[in-house]
Each structure stands twice: as structure tokens, then as C-alpha cells.
Design brief:
Two copies of one chain form a homodimer.
Chain A lengths: L6 H14 L8 E3 L6 E4 L4 E10 L11 H17 L4 E11 L5 H18 L4 E9 L4 E9 L16 E5 L4 H11 L2 H6 L1 H8 L5 H9 L4 E5 L3 H12 L1 E5 L5 H13 L4 H7 L5 E6 L9 E9 L5 E3 L2 E2 L11
Parallel strand pairs in A: 4-5, 9-12
Antiparallel strand pairs in A: 1-2, 3-6, 4-6, 7-10, 7-11, 8-10, 9-11, 12-13
Helix pairs in contact in A: 1-3, 2-3, 2-7, 4-6, 4-10, 9-10
Chain lengths: ~325, ~325
């Protein structure tokens, strides 16, 4: 039996060739992969750009996430940041550092994940360039680009007193999935594999970002470090206090409560501090008709003693820190 | 004595805050760092984008390169790919993965290097976003963007039979610097520290890329994996054979010959296979007046048995492979 082909045995050129051939193309690419740079259309004379990184052992474990999962997640987490500006994702560049002994089949599955996430979450978006480097641990860095289609970007800093605070997407499910994996409880992992799959392959509500912008959202971000931490970011950037109505979080809590009981965890903690669902959190004028994907969860108050309140209680800025964990 | 502050002791937010405050701003940034994405101006309705990664232990050693050097090099190596399209670098996003015990002073120096490289090599270009993550080894991924200012991009595939092959920038100096460092010969390292400094902080001829495009360059790329390997890329993409005149490489060789003798190395090998000077290699119509920065080194022939010739001899595709080294 011949041993498995690795990226080291194939070399950079051949490894990239096999990977690129599996990708969908970006409908905005004037020049795609293969030259020193790609050239991307930006019809309204501007583009949005963001970058985010996944590090083995810190952001993922290869025992828990396949190459496919990681490709999918790398796209989802980055284009959520594009959507949070009210933009349509158009193109990605992907830098992968991986050990030389990594099998080419892992990289091919990673490319499949990139492709499927683009096609499912943001049709028309595709990978336009990349880089493959040798390292001791897997590090995946993506830069994602989007088009505002002539609209103004929706920033974190525009929330106005009297606005409604609303969320699109799910809260706490990815955190539930992570806790289930960490528990090692195979029965629970099997019983609640829906949440494990949200952890592996997040499904951010990308189109809702554009809908929010068109409806006049005054501020928006993607909840990547947890509701408490990210809502505090809007509050601080906008010089307001956000007050979340705890009753409005019960629906998010209820869905994952059974899983929480199975491993003796707190569902509400997942809802408040879990980030990786990549929900969109936005504020809208009180008289706006919220886009269908958005559910109201609170209101915007004048700046008070605490930036964030859960009912009558200040809510501390708990959540994920990408350095400390 | 208090212990040094690390990125782990400060956390992500504070570490980023200290770093971002040291950066210059991009003159193309409509929205800079601090939101989910940046917004960049693209007045001609398109932009170029490329990505490149530096990995500790593979692309650099912290004993040989300071944080400042690495920031400088990360900018230089990426904007050379922008320049190679004939574009003006406008903006960068920078993702850094580093161990939690990394001192904040290292990250601050890295930011200083990013800033100084932008200001020196591509005024107006700046960092518009970034990401900081925890890892076991340092991995620096940059995505760089540029404006074609209404021009068509210069690709690798446009070389025409009869064109002149020319190079802007230096060849072999960074390879000399690396070989000197690897030799451990402190006298030689000291005597030829100019080449060591090219290895640490490359000085690619960024403006020459635009000059080449304006002069009608038919193909271009940045020499990042060595002249032999990168010239072969143009030849293959353009379906031609490139013939380099060995006499025209003597000037590049002469400059580093003394250093080569000092550590018993071959200067011409550095010229042919050393990449990290990030020179620009381009083809021009025979009747074009070459931009000042470009020196003719060969001609474009009809596709022959070998894609690349050094005089009458086929030149194999030797050079750097980012996976195999």
C-alpha cells in the first residue's frame, strides 16, 4: 500500500493546484487565483474588508473538526463580519499554515468546506487567492471582502437612545456544542449533535445584514465573542446603555436547555457569553419594521452607570478573549 | 522589578489598542480599524488583493529578526505582489497569531515596522484592520490591497515573443543575508550587514510597478521564490521561452561576491535562486523605453524545449518552495 500523499510530498505548487480546482469562483473576480494578486470588482467605488484567524489547539481541535468543517467555519466567521457592515460578501483570500505531514486529502476537504460555505451562505462569493505555508500547528487566516452596493456602512457607533435592540440568528448553540464536545459525554454529544454541528459549521444569517442596512439599522456587529461582550461594544462605541429584556432571551435558552441539563451546564450562560453562532446584533429606530430574521431583545437607553443591563441588573462584559480564551 | 507585560496579561482588547495607536492611517480608508470591517475607497471600481504568510521557524527566526523587522518584511513582501500587478498599495489587514507570553513590546515594535514600511515603501498605504490570536508559534498573515487607478492589471501571461525581459530592484542580496546568518560567522555577518538587513527588511521597488504598467509592460511578477523559478512562471503562463543573458547578471553577482567568498558560497546561485529581495520581473515591447528602475536581462523567444534559458543552457526551476523549503 502506498503511503498517503502529504502537502510536503506534493510541494506548494501541486498542493495549491489540487486545492484551487475544487473551489467555486467569485462572481466579482475580474482576475482570479494564479497571478500575484486577484482583481475584484467594486462597482460602487469602495469595498469592505475584515480578517479573522483560526488556530489549532486554541480555536479548534482536529479531533473535533474535520478539514471540511474548518473550511466552512473559516468562511462563515469572516463573512459574518462583512454582513455586519450591511455588505454582501464578494471574495476571500485564504492563508493556510500547516505541518508538512498534513495529508492532501485534509486540504482538499478544507477547500470543499470553503466552497460549500460560500455557495450556501453567500452565493456569488468565492476564494480569489491564497497562500500555503509550512508550520508546526494549523493556522487559518482569511481576509473577506464585500460590497455595500452603494449604501453607507452600518457601524457599531450609531445606536440612538430609543432604538430597538434586535438579534438575527441563534445564540448559545455553538457554545452548547463546544461544551458537549468538551464534556466527552458521547451519549449527550450524539443526542444533541445539532448544536455540535453549529459549533463545527456555523450558519450566520448573512443576508440579514443587508436587510438590516436597508431597513435603517443604526448600528450592527456580529456576535463573535458573546452577547454580553459584543453588546457592550455597541454600547461603548455609541455612548449609550443597552438594556436587554431577559424574557426575550428565554426562547434562545429553551432550545438548548435539555443539552445543558445533560451535561450539568447553564443554558443562559451559553446564551449570554457564547460567540460562535455569529448572530447579528443590531439597533433599529423604534418605528422601523424589523426585517423578518431579527427578533427584538431590548432597547437603547441614555448612557448610565453600566454599558449593558440585563433587566434591572448590570451585565458584566464576559465572553471570549482570543488571547486568554 | 515588575515582570514584562505580555499579550496574555493585557488581553486582546488592550493589546490591540496599544498596537493600533502606533500605526499610520491609510489615505484610502473610509472606515479604519475598530469596526467589524474596514471600508476602503476604490475609485476606479475595482481593487487588487493578495495574501502572504510568515511562519516562525520556517520563514524567520526570532533570534535573527526583531518584531520591527518582521512588521517591515510582512508589509514589503505583500505590497510587492500588489506592485507586480501595476497597482498602488492602499491598505492592509494583518492577522497575528502569537504565544500568550509574547511581550507587548514585541507587538509594539512589530506595529512600528508595519508603519515604517508603509511610509517608506508605499506612502498612503496603511493597516486598516487586524486580528490577534493565541498560538504556540508566531504566524503573520497579511492581505494587501491596491488600486489600478483605472489601468488594466499586468498579468504573468502577457509576455510576447520579441519582448525585452527586465528586472527592477536587487537579486541575491536577501539570500546572501540569510546565508550569512546561517553561517554563524560573526565577522562576515558584521562585514556584510547590508545584505543581512535586506534579508530582514526587504526594499522592493514598489513605485516601479506602476511605472512598468504605464510603460506598457506585457507581463510582470515579483521575484519571491527566486529568479529561476519566477521567470519560469512567466514563461509557462505566457507560453514562451525566456532567455536570460548571463552577462546581464554579472552586476548583481559582483555586489555580493565578496560576501560569498567570505562564507565559501556561490554568489550566482543567490542571484538565480534567492527570492526575498522582492525584485519586479517584467517584459516590455522591444521598442518601449524602459522605466529607470528596470535593467534589461534577457529576451522573450518562441516556446522551446525549456521554458527558461541562461544563455544557451536550459535553467532548471530551482528556488524556494514554501512547504518544502
Amino acid at each position: 500500500m502506498s503511503s498517503a500523499e502529504t502537502i510536503s510530498s506534493l510541494g506548494e505548487n501541486e498542493s495549491l493546484k489540487r486545492t484551487i480546482s475544487r473551489l467555486n469562483s467569485s462572481s466579482s473576480a475580474l482576475v482570479g487565483p494564479g497571478d500575484d494578486s486577484a482583481v475584484i470588482s467594486a462597482p460602487d467605488g469602495k469595498f469592505v474588508v475584515t480578517t479573522d484567524t483560526l488556530v489549532e489547539g486554541h480555536d479548534f481541535k482536529t479531533e473535533w473538526s474535520s478539514g471540511y468543517d474548518l473550511g466552512y467555519k473559516a468562511v462563515a466567521s469572516n463573512i459574518a463580519d462583512v454582513a455586519a457592515m450591511g455588505a454582501v460578501p464578494t471574495s476571500l483570500v485564504v492563508a493556510v499554515a500547516a505541518p508538512g505531514h498534513t495529508e492532501i486529502s485534509w486540504l482538499e476537504a478544507f477547500a470543499d468546506g470553503l466552497r460549500d460555505a460560500c455557495e450556501k451562505l453567500a452565493p456569488g462569493c468565492g476564494v480569489v487567492g491564497g497562500d500555503l505555508a509550512a508550520s508546526e500547528q494549523i493556522v487559518i487566516s482569511v481576509a473577506a471582502h464585500g460590497s455595500l452596493e452603494g449604501r453607507e456602512p452600518v457601524l457599531r457607533s450609531g445606536a440612538q437612545v430609543g432604538d430597538v435592540l434586535a438579534v438575527a440568528g441563534t445564540l448559545g448553540r455553538a457554545a452548547a456544542g463546544l461544551a458537549l464536545l468538551q464534556s466527552g459525554n458521547q451519549d449527550a454529544i450524539h443526542a444533541y449533535d445539532d448544536w455540535v454541528n453549529v459549533q463545527r459549521r456555523p450558519q450566520p444569517p448573512i443576508a440579514a445584514g443587508v436587510d438590516a442596512a436597508k431597513t435603517g439599522a443604526t448600528s450592527m456587529l456580529d456576535v463573535s465573542d458573546g452577547l454580553a461582550k459584543d453588546a457592550t461594544r455597541i454600547a461603548k462605541a455609541s455612548n449609550v446603555t443597552l438594556q436587554i429584556d431577559p424574557l426575550q432571551l428565554q426562547g434562545f435558552e429553551a432550545v438548548i436547555e435539555e443539552a445543558a441539563r445533560a451535561i450539568d451546564a447553564e443554558a443562559m450562560e451559553w446564551v449570554l457569553t457564547g460567540g460562535e453562532d455569529h448572530a447579528l446584533l443590531a439597533t433599529f429606530p423604534a418605528d422601523a419594521k424589523l426585517p423578518r430574521a431579527f427578533k427584538p431583545i431590548g432597547i437603547v437607553l441614555p448612557q448610565g452607570a453600566a454599558p449593558l443591563m440585563l433587566g434591572a441588573q448590570p451585565l458584566p462584559e464576559l465572553g471570549w478573549d482570543s488571547i486568554r480564551g
